[in-house]
Write a structure and sequence with these properties.
This protein has 96 residues and is of the alpha+beta class. Helix content is 69%, strand content 15%. α1 crosses α2.
Length: 96
């Protein structure tokens, strides 16, 4: 079994103990930092009294960004596939 690492992450003034693979640590710590920064920005921008509301807004923004990236990646893949198909057709016509 791979070695595991026990870490504690603090999100919105709450500590979450986790047991993770060492390779996951950097990503989790960066994600935690991103979430806490987003929480701070949202609290400064909106008069939100409930931490749950700020966390929900944060989750919505992150999920929206993820979905938009997937949509953009899909569109890019379709464009690239079309261009490669066109190039393949051109090369096949030259070879004939």
């Amino acid at each position: 079994m791979l070695d595991t690492l026990k870490i504690k992450l603090s999100i919105a003034d709450r500590v979450y103990p986790l047991t993770i693979q060492p390779a996951q640590e950097e990503g989790l710590r960066k994600a935690t930092q991103q979430i806490n920064q987003m929480i701070t920005r949202l609290e400064q921008s909106y008069s939100v009294k409930d931490k749950q509301d700020v966390l929900a807004m944060c989750a919505l923004q992150l999920a929206s960004q993820n979905q938009q990236k997937q949509i953009d990646d899909t569109n890019l893949n379709k464009t690239l596939q079309s261009r490669l198909s066109n190039l393949d057709d051109l090369l096949n016509n030259i070879a004939i």
